[in-house]
Write a structure and sequence with these properties.
The chain has about 210 residues and is an all-alpha fold. It has helices at about 5-30, 40-70, 80-100, 105-115, 120-135, 140-145, 145-150, 155-170, 175-205.
Length: about 210
Amino acid sequence: MLTAKSARKFFKLPVFLTCLLPFLFIITDAYEYTGSLGANPIENIQDRLGNWGLRFLLISLAITPIRKITGQAWIILFRRMLGLFAFFYVLLHFLTWLILEQSMVLPAIIEDIITRPFITIGFLALLILFIMAATSTTNIKKKLKKRWHTIHRLVYGSSALAVWHYWWQVKKDITEPLIYAVILSVLLLYRLWYKYKSQKLMSLKTKNPA
């Protein structure tokens, strides 16, 4: 079985660079080295950043179930990195809308929020991710103790808001947001099932001590 030390040594940099690839491809596409950003480059950038933010969010949620199912404890080492990359891409998605699309013009921003409520939902998801990113360090985790776990359980709420944001954004083809919604539902159901199983096992141990 792979140890945590070996996993950190051999996989940390490759995983980091892999997570950075979508961002690098946006840059190289902008210069038309690897492709193009199409007829509407701002929308293209927004969509790609938002999609990758949601994907990394779901991948980070899948880490714990994969660890429990496979018994490979080292995989948990990459959960924080994946979560921070999710925040990175969602933040860039928001900044692209704020700076490139709205040019930071307050009346246009307010009008967009009023007429397009999915933006408000997306902002709430970003706010939760910001709180989680700000409290992701080891020192803060030690200081917050049990409250840290309570805060970081909000990731499911943030993920649900992100999927909802995407669902409302698309107008006709909801195939992709539906796929994300199904994946999130499976991950959430697994968490609930595992919690129920653990509580039941604990109850049996209490009633029948060895």
